């Protein structure tokens, strides 16, 4: 649990600390901007910032039924956050697997990437993509 939320907590704490330092220097506007930016990034990279995660087995079964891609991700990953934000509402059309919450999902990613846990990894019924461009994944989400 702490692992899944750790990066978001650190980001929020860093924003609070840096905002406090700027506030102590009398730079109120800068303090507020820094705090808001850090907290916003913490929210975007936190688990609730993504569609509901399912297990690897559930995602594979659903993908076999509907043909939608599976996105393997982890909380705190800036590339995953960039992908999620770029998809907008289309993100819910894909099946999301949090590799920190599902060991089978992490094993799938390691099989695809040759041993590491590079995310986002996107799997369609016919091919796999490691850290694909948001444009490519948006096109996959349209189908």
TrEMBL record:
InterPro entries: Glutaredoxin, Thioredoxin-like_sf. Residues 70-124 form the Glutaredoxin domain. It comes from the Bacteria. This is Membrane protein. The lineage of its organism: Bacteria, Bacillati, Actinomycetota, Actinomycetes, Micromonosporales.
